[in-house]
């Protein structure tokens, strides 16, 4: 090997990267032995390395282009992953929203059930108050029982009407002139009730216009208070004053006299009331069940009444001339007592039907029914009849209209329950 070969080897060792220790035993390169005859001068080697440098530059530019393309592909992959992650996030949000809406519906249903249960408890509380008053009247010996009972009835009705006036007129207590009217001697009449009923309908209409069907609002609370006071007043009238309850259940709001006849607004009017009340399928089923129960009870009552009337007619003419201990006289007196109890049973059936009718509605639905039916109180039999007609249920009632018209007197609670039977 000549001097040119040695110089080439040294240059190669000097230009090697630091991490390749060509002098160590681990990275020793086996350099081929170049014959002296094949060795070229250094100048000739330098002149041959020019194409090699051009090749390295082109490789380097190609490597940079490949790297840029790889970076672009990576960005697209990341962008696609972000898009899928965003889609999954939106789907999770939609699922959560649907779950929240489902929970709201369940809580709303529970709230409505609780309100109906509260209304039932309020009605039962009124019944218990009546029992307590009866017990107290039996313990009183200073005054006759009848006087105490009449006084208790008048005071209870006056208190309920006073509370109703205060709630409707949004005052803590009635004015002095109202108090004198409510506590006046004698029975309450429709002249005491009609004015505040007009104001009640107007106030309910205003509350509904102010968004009263939205829970938690002031208007909604006003509807709750007014309907609650109205139901309590009707309940007490049902227990304490049959005649007043009968008139109030079949009246015109704008009437001025107890003797004013009830006019029939027509079936289309009550169809609008049903549409405004927005009954649910469950509520409609409850209303139809209540109507079926009423008709079944009336069928039993009228059958029993017919037998009582036959007994009374057969025995009473002879009983007038017989001694008080004679069998015919005793049978006639017993038939008269049975007839009185039978009439009371009809009144109780009608009263319980109205209570059941109201129990199947929440306070907002009750308010809508009253406003849509103004100036008439709800014709509950006409309303349930329309509900039955819309549901496609058969008009299966054992009581026919002809039978009612022949069997029931004009003062019958059932006859006065509906304009269709008037």
Structural account:
With 422 residues, the protein is mainly α. It folds into three domains: 1-57, no CATH class; 117-261, no CATH class; 265-422, no CATH class. The chain is built from 14 helices and no strands. The chain has helices at 3-15, 42-139, 145-168, 176-182, 190-209, 218-240, 242-249, 267-277, 281-319, 327-359, 363-373, 380-391, 401-407, 413-417. Helix 2 (42-139) packs antiparallel against helix 3 (145-168) and helix 6 (218-240) packs across helix 11 (363-373). It is elongated, with a radius of gyration of 48 Å.
Shape: elongated
Structure classification: mainly alpha
| Number of separate domains | 3
Helical percentage: over 70%
Please describe the biggest sheet, giving its number of strands, its sense, and whether it closes into a barrel. Answer: none
Distance between the termini: 140 Å
Topology as H/E string? Answer: HHHHHHHHHHHHHH
Low-pLDDT stretches: 22-31, 33-50, 140-146, 252-259
Alpha carbon gyration radius: 48 Å
Helix segment tally: 14
Beta strand count:
0
Oligomeric grouping of the chains:
single chain
Mean pLDDT: 73
Beta strand %: under 5%
Strand and helix layout:
Elements (H helix, E strand, L loop, with lengths): L2 H13 L26 H98 L5 H24 L7 H7 L7 H20 L8 H23 L1 H8 L17 H11 L3 H39 L7 H33 L3 H11 L6 H12 L9 H7 L5 H5 L5
Report a brief summary of the structure.
With 422 residues, this protein is mostly helical. The protein has 3 domains: 1-57, no CATH class; 117-261, no CATH class; 265-422, no CATH class. The chain is 74% helix and 0% strand.
């Amino acid at each position: 090997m000549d001097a040119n070969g040695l110089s080439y080897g040294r240059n190669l060792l000097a230009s090697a990267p630091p991490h390749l220790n060509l002098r160590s035993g681990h990275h020793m390169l086996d350099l081929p032995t170049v014959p002296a005859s094949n060795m070229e001068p250094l100048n000739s080697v330098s002149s041959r390395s020019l194409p090699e440098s051009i090749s390295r530059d082109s490789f380097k530019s190609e490597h940079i282009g490949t790297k840029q393309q790889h970076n672009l592909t990576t960005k697209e992959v990341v962008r696609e992953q972000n898009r899928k992650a965003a889609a999954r996030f939106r789907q999770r949000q939609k699922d959560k929203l649907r779950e929240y809406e489902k929970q709201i519906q369940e809580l709303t249903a529970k709230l409505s059930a609780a309100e109906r249960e509260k209304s039932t408890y309020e009605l039962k509380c009124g019944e218990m108050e009546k029992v307590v008053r009866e017990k107290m009247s039996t313990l009183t010996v200073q005054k006759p029982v009848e006087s105490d009972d009449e006084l208790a009835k008048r005071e209870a009705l006056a208190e309920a009407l006073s509370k109703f006036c205060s709630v409707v007129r949004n005052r803590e207590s009635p004015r002095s002139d109202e108090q004198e009217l409510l506590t006046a001697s004698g029975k309450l009449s429709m002249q005491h009730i009609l004015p505040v009923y007009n104001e009640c309908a107007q106030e309910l209409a205003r509350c509904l216009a102010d968004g009263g069907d939205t829970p938690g609002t002031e208007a909604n609370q006003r509807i709750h208070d007014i309907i609650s006071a109205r139901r309590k007043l009707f309940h007490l009238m049902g227990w304490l004053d049959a005649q007043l309850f009968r008139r109030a259940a079949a009246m015109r709001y704008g009437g001025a006299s107890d003797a004013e006849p009830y006019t029939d607004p027509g079936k289309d009017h009550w169809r609008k009331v049903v549409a405004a009340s927005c009954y649910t399928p469950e509520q409609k089923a409850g209303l139809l069940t209540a109507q079926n129960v009423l008709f079944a009870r009336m069928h039993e009552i009228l059958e029993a009444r017919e037998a009582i009337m036959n007994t009374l007619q057969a025995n009473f003419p002879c009983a007038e001339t017989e001694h008080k201990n004679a069998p015919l006289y005793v049978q006639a007196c017993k038939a008269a007592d049975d007839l009185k109890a039978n009439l009371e049973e009809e009144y109780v059936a009608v009263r319980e039907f109205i209570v059941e009718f109201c129990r199947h509605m929440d306070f907002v639905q009750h308010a809508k029914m009253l406003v849509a039916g103004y100036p008439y109180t709800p014709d509950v039999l006409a309303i349930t009849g329309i509900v039955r007609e819309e549901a496609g249920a058969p008009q299966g009632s054992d009581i026919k209209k002809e039978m009612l018209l022949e069997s029931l007197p004009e003062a019958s609670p059932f006859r006065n329950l509906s304009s269709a039977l008037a």
